[in-house]
Amino acid sequence: MNEGRANALNHAHPRDDTSAQLRVLATTDVHMQMLGHAYVSDRPMAHSGLASIATLVEDARREASAQGRATLLLDNGDLVQGTALGSWLSGRAVTAAHPVATALNLMRYDAVGLGNHDLDYGLFYLNQLARHLRMPVISSNLHQTGPFPLHPFALIDCPLPGSRGEVLRVGVLSVLPEQTAVWNRHVLQGSASVSPALGCVQAAVPVLRAQGADLIVLLAHMGIEEPVTGRSTRDSALPLAKVPGIDAIITGHTHRRFPGSDHPAGADIDTEGGTLAQCPASMPGYAASDLAILDLTLNRVEGGRWQVIGHISRLVRNGADTPACPAVHAACAPAHEATRAHLATPVATTAARLQNYFSLATPTATAALVARAKARVIRDALSGRPEADLPLLATASAHTAGGREGADHYLNIPQGPVLRRHVAGLDPYLNEVWAQRVTGSDLRRLLEHTSRIYAPLQPGAQAQRLVDARIPSFDFDTVYGLDYTVDPTRRVGQRVTRLYYDGQRVEDDQPFILATNQFRIAGGGGYSPACADQIMRCTPVSLTEALVDALNHPEDLAWPQPTPWRLACTGSTTAVLTTSPDATPFLHDLADFAPKPLGIDDAGFLEVQITL
Questions:
Q1: Pick from 342, 424, 605: nearest CA to 38
Q2: Could you tell me which of 136, 140, 141 has the C-alpha nearest to residue 156?
Q3: What are the backbone dihedrals phi and psi of residue 602, each rounded to the nearest 5 degrees, phi first?
Q4: What gap in Å lies between CA 313 and CA 426, rounded to an integer?
Q5: Alpha-carbon distance 473 to 245, whole Å?
Q6: Most buried residue, 217, 444, 520, 597, by CB count within 10 Å?
Q7: Where are the beta strands (DSSP E) in 562-611?
C-alpha cells in the first residue's frame, strides 16, 4: 500500500542539463528482521523481512531507471539489534558471512546510519561489522576516541541515467538521539561521546557543500515531535528539518510511518504530502514493514547548483505477497536456523502458565515476573547500604503485547519448561537493571504518563477503544509494590485516583527505590529522565540474566500486592480491548470486567468488550 501525494511540482521533467530526478530509497528500525520471523512464538511473520525488502528495492530501482531517475539506498539505523537472531550473532565472531554484512552488500546500500540500539553490543562489535561493509557507516554526532571505520558524513556520486557521465553528488549525514549517551553509557564510557544533533548538522552542512555536495540527505534516527511546553525536542527530527541546506530527511526510532495517519498533522508536519517544515521526509515503519521512496525533482539554478523543486514521498508495504530475494534469504538462513535451535533450549520451569494477552487491562503474571526479577537484583545490590531500608518498587513494561507488531505479538508460556525464546519475549531489548531514588510525587507523574496508553473514554459511550493506538504498548509501565487505581474517563494528569503503599496513602515527599532499566532512567518513552543524584545503582546485570535467575527461585521476593493496579471509573463505562484470538480460552482473567467477545477485526485482533 502506498501513502502520500504529489504537489503541483511533482510532474516528471524531461532529461536535460537543467533538470534531474533522484529517487531516495530508505529503511529504518529493521531490528534484525532479516527473514520475517517472530522468534518468541517461533512463527513466520506476514512478510519475509529485509529479504523481501530487497525485492522491493530492485523493483524500485528498475522503475527509477525507466523514468530516468538516479537512485540512492540508505538505512537509518537500529539494524543490528532487536531479535534473538541479533543477540545470538553478537556472541560470535564477526566475519564477512555475517547476515547483516552479506545482506547490505548484496542489496548495494549506498550508506548506513546508526541508531541507538546499534551500540547495544558494544563498539568493538559494531566496528568489526562495519569493516565488512562495502558502504560507509555514518554517524555525525557519535565521536569515537580511537581508530574506527565510522564516518562523520559521506559524499556519494549517483549517476544520472541518460546523461553523458553526469552525476549527482549527494551528501549524507546521520544523527542518533543525544540520550544515547545515557542509554548506552556502559559501552560508550571512555570510548565515545555523543554531541547534540542540531549543532552537528548545522556545522556539517557548509562542509559538505564546500566539498561539492549538490544536495544533502539527513538520516535522523529520531521521531517526529512538535514542541510541547515543558518538554525538550532535542531528540526530535523536526528542528533538524529546518536547518538550511537539508534537502530531504529520513526519520525513525519511534517505529511509526510517515507520511500517513501515524502522526498528527501540524503547522510544520504535512502528513499527506510528506514534509517536515517543507522538507521532503519519510519514516518507513519498523521491522522491515515498509520501504520509503522519496522522489525528488531538481532544477539547476544560477551558479550551477541543484535545487529541489518538487517531491513525492510514499511508503511501499512489505507484504505477504512480496517474494524474498533468494540470495539474501540464503545468506541469512544458516544463522536463522541456528538461532531457532538455541531458543528451543529450556532454561527454567514454571508451575503456572504465564501470558500477557490482557496486559493493557489488568496486571499479568509476566509483568509480575519481570518486576520481581529487577527487584531481586537491586535488593542484592543495595544490601548493607542505607538505601536498603527504603521501600523497594519495580517496573515492568508491556513488551510483546500486540500493538503495531500485530495480533501474533503476545507471550504465552505454558506450564512446564521455559525456553530461551520465552525469556527473549520478556526482554527484547537486552536492558540492564538500574535503580533510582524517587518520591511519591515522582511516582504519580510516572503513573500519569503511563496512563496515556488509554484513550479518553466517555462515560456511557459505546464501541470506544480502550487503548490509544498512537502510544506503543512498550511505553506502558506497571509499578509493583504499589496499590493504585487509574480512571481513563479523566484527563491525563488526573487519572490516578488512588495511590497507596503498604495500606497507606503515598505522600508527595515519601522516598522509594525504583528498580527499572537504563532506558527509562534516561527518559526513554517520554518519561522524565532521572537526575544524576537520583540514580542509585547501575548494575551490569542484564534483565535476561535476572529473569532466568528469578524463574529458578520462584519463592523469593513475591509481591505482597499481586494486583498493583486496576481500571475503574465512576458509573458504568464500556470499552473495546483488542488482543490475540489465542486469548479466547483465558477470558476468565477478565471476569471482573464482564468480557464479551465481539469478533476479529480487519487487522486480525480479537475485539473484547469490557465494562469498567
A1: 424
A2: 136
A3: -65, -25
A4: 36
A5: 37
A6: 217
A7: 565-567, 574-579, 596-600, 606-611
- CA–CA separation, 475 and 389 (whole Å): 29
Q: Strand runs (DSSP E) across 527-582, as ranges? A: 535-542, 565-567, 574-579
Calculate the average pLDDT of the chain. 91
In the chain, what is the straight-line distance between the N-terminal and C-terminal CA atoms, in Å?
A: 37
Indicate the pairing of strand 111-113 with strand 137-138.
parallel
Q: Say how far apart CA 237 and CA 222 lie, in whole Å.
A: 5
3-state SS, residue 20: strand
Q: Which of 323, 431, 418, 321 is nearest to 365 (CA)?
A: 418
> What is residue 530's predicted lDDT score, i.e. its pLDDT?
86
Classify 42 as helix, strand or coil.
coil
Could you identify the residue written with the cell 503503599?
501
DSSP state of 431: P
d(CA 67, CA 260): 25
What strands, in cross-sheet order, belong to the sheet with 511-517? 477-480, 392-397, 511-517, 432-439, 535-542
CA-wise closest residue to 200 among 179, 176, 182: 176
Please work out, in degrees rounded to the nearest 5, the angle formed at the alpha carbon of residue 472 by the alpha carbons of 465 and 198. 135
173 touches 213 (CB < 8 A): no
Closest by CA position to 170, among listed 126, 194, 135: 135
CA atoms within 13 A on the CB side of 370: 32
User: Is-above-0.90 flag for pTM?
Assistant: no
Residue 232 has pLDDT above 70, yes or no: no
- Burial grade of 146 (CB within 10 A; 0-12, 13-18, 19 or more): exposed
CB 348 within 8 A of CB 552: yes
* Cα atoms in the 13 Å half-sphere on the side-chain side of 41: 21
**306-315, 324-333, 408-417: range with lowest mean pLDDT:** 408-417
Side chain identity at residue 18, one-letter code: T
The gap from C-alpha 49 to its chain's centroid, in whole angstroms, comes to 16
How would you class 81 by CB atoms within 10 Å of its CB: exposed for 0-12, middle for 13-18, buried for 19 or more? buried
Q: DSSP letter at 491? A: P
Which 3 state secondary structure label does DSSP give 372? Answer: helix
**Residue corresponding to grid cell 560470535:** 92
Q: What pLDDT does 197 receive?
A: 96
- Under 8 Å between Cβ of 106 and 331: yes
pLDDT digits 0-9 by tens, 417-437: 999 999 998 888 778 899 999
**Count of residues in the chain:** 612
Q: Which of the 8 DSSP states describes residue 319?
A: -
Question: By three-state DSSP, how is residue 3 classified?
Answer: coil
Is the pLDDT reported for residue 226 higher than 80?
A: no
Angle, nearest 10°, between helix axes 365-381 and 543-551? Answer: 100
More confident call, 230 vs 259: 259
Report CA 235 to chain centroid distance, whole Å: 14
User: 504 exposed, middle or buried (CB, 10 Å; 0-12, 13-18, 19+)?
Assistant: exposed
Torsion region of 481: left, alpha or beta (phi above 0 gives left; psi -120 to 50 gives alpha): left
Q: Report the b/e string of 448-464 with b at 16+ CB within 10 A.
A: bbbbbbbbebeeeeeee
Separation between Cα atoms, residue 412 and residue 42, nearest integer Å: 12
DSSP single-letter state for residue 108: T
